[in-house]
Amino acid sequence: IVHSQFSIELADKWYGAGAAGDWRQIPLLRTVRNPNRIDARARIGLASGDFLVCCFGLLTPAKLNDRLLTAWLNSDLVRNPVCQLIFVGHKGDEDYGRQLEDLIAASGVRSRIRITGFASPDLYRDYLSAADVAVQLRTRSRGETSRAVFDCIAYGIPTIVNAHGSLAELPEEVVAQIPDVFDDCQLTAKLERLYDDVDYRRILSTS
Description:
- The protein has 207 residues and is an alpha/beta fold.
- Helix content is 38%, strand content 13%.
């Protein structure tokens, strides 16, 4: 049992045509536990006017967290004191995590960029309830389906993904998609559009 056509295609590619003949694809179902945005923001220390961009999950090279950090630092959001970037998760790769922390320390805006470390289920749900935008990127997929992406969608967060692996199967009216292999400027432009375009965020939140 798998959650994407991409996994079936990988099986046929690596194990031979027909290897996935008896496989079945089912949805990765996620539910929402009555989120309260105002209460969640209060618990994590956000002001009502803060604009919160979140990335959920382990920090590893396969999640392209460094590319998100670079794109955010090159965007108009970095010059706006209400905008924050939060990586909700712990460092799955210590060397990679230290590199990210060094970049954050040298950014000049470290007070508005944070890595939470391990997030309890309650804290994870608070950030899902509080976020204005999520960015969930992937590379070097082995056929996995991102639970975090579906959590973001379930919570109505406008979510940026790159068209990699199973993420490419998500409808364009549901996520803000950029190419699988993208330039940092493409991600920067998408971040800026989601900040500026309230109607676009609303469409992604309600589709």
